[in-house]
Write a structure and sequence with these properties.
Layout lengths: L2 E5 L2 E4 L4 E8 L4 E10 L6 E7 L4 E3 L7 E6 L4 E6 L8 E11 L7 E4 L3 E6 L1
Parallel strand pairs: 2-11
Antiparallel strand pairs: 1-3, 3-8, 4-5, 4-9, 5-6, 7-8, 9-10, 9-11
Length: 122
């Protein structure tokens, strides 16, 4: 019923830009935090950036100053603007939504998107 759908991945040259989008669909009452994670070949999944419903953000040191996360609460959508891309940014990027509530209350579920591939060539 609840799904996260990512878009915007693709192939880009070093120094270029991409904008990722992730929309949460379903009968959703609220979402606490949304974020982006990535997994490069042969490496573990790592946090890229998160944003709370109140607008507080958190970034991995490796992307600070280059990436910007934003959110549209009315659309249950999170964005990741990626500038000055480097080959080491190549990874599958996963959207995450934490404490997704279908009704008011403390109950909430965590959801993941299926991922979108970002490839940065040198």
């Amino acid at each position: 019923q609840v799904q996260l759908v990512e878009s915007g991945g693709g192939l880009v040259q070093a120094g270029g830009s991409l904008r990722l989008s992730c929309a949460a669909s379903g009968s959703i009452f609220s979402i606490n935090a949304m974020g982006w994670y990535r997994q490069a070949p042969g490496k573990q999944r790592e946090l890229v950036a998160t944003i709370t419903s109140g607008g507080s953000t958190n970034y991995a040191d490796s992307v600070k100053g280059r990436f910007t996360i934003s959110r549209d609460n009315a659309k249950n959508t999170v964005y990741l603007q990626m500038n000055s891309l480097k080959p080491e940014d190549t990874a599958v990027y996963y959207c995450n939504a934490d404490r997704v509530r279908l009704v008011p209350g403390n109950y909430g579920m965590n959801y993941w998107g299926k991922g979108t591939l970002v490839t940065v060539s040198s």
